[in-house]
């Protein structure tokens, strides 16, 4: 039986060689960005003669044509001057490095000096301090502001309340359900109040591990908002590196970086530094690092390692893993060869590297979850106090997780407006969030890639959008200020 003939040009390159080639191409691309080709010097090289043997070509490339002017660097070298070679400092202080430093300093300055500079919800700091004291549950002596924490309460068997919180029983749906079922109040209380009830933080432990070295030095009084702003500044450097890979236009690189840092809710979240926003900030930092090791420097292991760290910061971020699987498809899936079984196209090494990067984080998450909740897949959401409170029962009418909850997101993501108030700061986000086009209007540009070709139509469309936005905003402001303004006061024609 004859082996199927491969199509011309379709010979598969082994995974290891392709892996090295792709990374070398990436290195060359990065070098071309940092050190663009210089202008032609006065030196001319002799043309390549195809009639010569390979051995006769040796040294030919560097032979100047007789009578050609020597390059300045050669003249200096012959005179005992500089050889023209760049020093380490010259290579380090390139334009791109300087812009990266500027972005980091600018991000820190804006976020910190225009932000609150502190938060009462520094629970990742408290969690790290508790871990350093040998336990995963939060205890008053090792924590701060536990009275305002969104508590996760578990006694080893089920949701509970600690001794001393009997006054909160009437606010809980489990207690109300037992009373309605005819259970005596004392018995219902005994089923919920537990001396073994432990208090945990709802969020994943990744950020707590990140701040742990600082907590060793400064204790539980360490400023979590400051750490959040510093991480945002480091994120700025990665964002700019990714933007440079996405576009060769220096203006576009800077514009994309500015858009991310100052045109999205990342600014607000990172400058806040509270328990929820700090988790988002850390997840964003690690997610951009994963993107960097996917698009700029292609290393499946490092990309997965950063993705796993993002998962430990905010578990839902793991859904972005599909992006990385697709972007690395050229490494783990060889080109199709006619007549070859599909399974032979798979390359195990890149896939195993990616899995190896994720595995430690999954093991760590499963281990800490099991220690806390006796379930490796439980992050505490089923035992959070708010999920058992009567006044929030409508939000959890199908438990803490249900696919029907997906329908709640589009109205917020696409249409939620801010709240307008008569006192400073006058405009504040709503509890559930804001529409993306409100927080980042520039996102609308992606739907019009050829917008520059239609300047008149663009101006007309922008005018209509401004009028519509003006009506919506003025209506919202009028409602907040209890005025009688309405759209019916606008002449129809």
Structural class: mainly alpha
Binned strand content: under 5%
Distance between the termini: 82 Å
State the helix count.
19
Please tell me how large the radius of gyration is: 30 Å
What do these coordinates show?
The structure is a single chain. The protein is mostly helical and 493 residues long. The chain contains 19 helices and six strands. It has helices spanning 15-34, 72-78, 88-92, 95-113, 123-132, 173-180, 185-192, 206-218, 224-246, 250-262, 266-272, 275-296, 300-313, 321-327, 329-332, 348-373, 409-415, 436-439, 455-480, and strands at 151-154, 161-162, 193-194, 198-201, 419-420, 427-428. The strands form three sheets. A two-stranded antiparallel sheet has the order 1-4. The protein has a two-stranded parallel sheet with strand order 2-3. A hairpin with a 6-residue loop joins strand 5 and strand 6. The longest helix is centred in the C-terminal third of the chain and has 26 residues, at 348-373. The termini are far apart. The relative contact order is 0.09. Mean pLDDT is 82; it is low at 1-12, 37-48, 50-82 and 485-493.
Compact description:
The chain is mainly alpha-helical. It contains 19 helices and 6 strands.
């Amino acid at each position: 039986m004859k082996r199927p003939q491969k199509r011309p040009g379709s010979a598969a390159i082994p995974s290891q060689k392709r892996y090295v080639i792709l990374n070398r191409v990436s290195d060359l691309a990065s070098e071309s960005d940092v050190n663009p080709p210089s202008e032609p010097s006065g030196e001319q090289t002799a043309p390549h003669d195809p009639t010569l043997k390979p051995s006769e070509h040796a040294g030919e490339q560097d032979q100047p044509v007789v009578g050609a002017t020597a390059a300045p660097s050669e003249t200096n070298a012959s005179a005992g001057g500089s050889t023209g070679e760049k020093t380490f400092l010259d290579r380090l202080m390139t334009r791109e490095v300087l812009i990266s430093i500027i972005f980091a300093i600018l991000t820190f300055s804006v976020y910190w000096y225009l932000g609150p500079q502190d938060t009462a919800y520094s629970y990742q700091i408290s969690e790290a301090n508790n871990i350093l004291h040998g336990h995963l549950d939060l205890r008053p002596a090792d924590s701060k502001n536990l009275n305002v924490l969104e508590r996760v309460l578990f006694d080893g068997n089920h949701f509970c309340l600690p001794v001393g919180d009997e006054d909160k029983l009437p606010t809980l749906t489990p207690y109300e359900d037992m009373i309605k079922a005819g259970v005596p109040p004392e018995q219902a209380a005994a089923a919920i109040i537990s001396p073994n009830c432990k208090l945990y933080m709802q969020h994943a432990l990744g950020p707590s591990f990140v701040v742990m070295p600082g907590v060793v030095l400064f204790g539980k009084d360490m400023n979590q908002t400051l750490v959040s702003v510093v991480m945002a500044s480091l994120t700025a450097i990665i964002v700019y590196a990714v933007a440079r890979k996405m576009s060769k236009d220096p203006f576009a690189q800077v514009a994309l970086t500015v858009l991310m840092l100052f045109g999205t809710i990342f600014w607000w979240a990172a400058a806040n530094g509270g328990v929820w926003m700090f988790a988002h900030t850390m997840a964003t930092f690690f997610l951009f690092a994963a993107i960097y090791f996917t698009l700029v420097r292609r290393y499946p292991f490092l990309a997965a390692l950063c993705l796993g760290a993002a998962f430990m910061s905010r578990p839902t971020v793991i859904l972005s893993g599909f992006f990385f699987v697709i972007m690395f498809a050229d490494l783990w899936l060889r080109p199709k060869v006619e007549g070859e079984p599909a399974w032979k196209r798979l390359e195990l090494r890149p896939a195993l590297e990616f899995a190896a990067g994720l595995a430690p984080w999954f093991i760590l998450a499963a281990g800490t979850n099991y220690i806390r909740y006796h379930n490796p897949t439980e992050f505490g959401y089923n035992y959070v106090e708010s999920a058992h409170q009567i006044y929030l029962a409508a939000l959890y009418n199908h438990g803490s997780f249900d696919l029907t909850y997906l329908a709640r997101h589009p109205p917020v993501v696409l249409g939620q407006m801010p709240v307008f108030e008569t006192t400073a700061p006058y405009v504040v986000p709503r509890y559930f969030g804001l529409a993306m086009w409100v927080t980042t209007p520039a996102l609308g540009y992606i739907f019009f890639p050829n917008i520059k070709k239609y300047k008149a139509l663009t101006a007309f469309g922008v005018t209509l959008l401004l009028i519509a936005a003006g009506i919506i905003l003025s209506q919202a402001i009028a409602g907040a200020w209890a005025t009688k303004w309405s759209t019916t006061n606008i002449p129809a024609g």
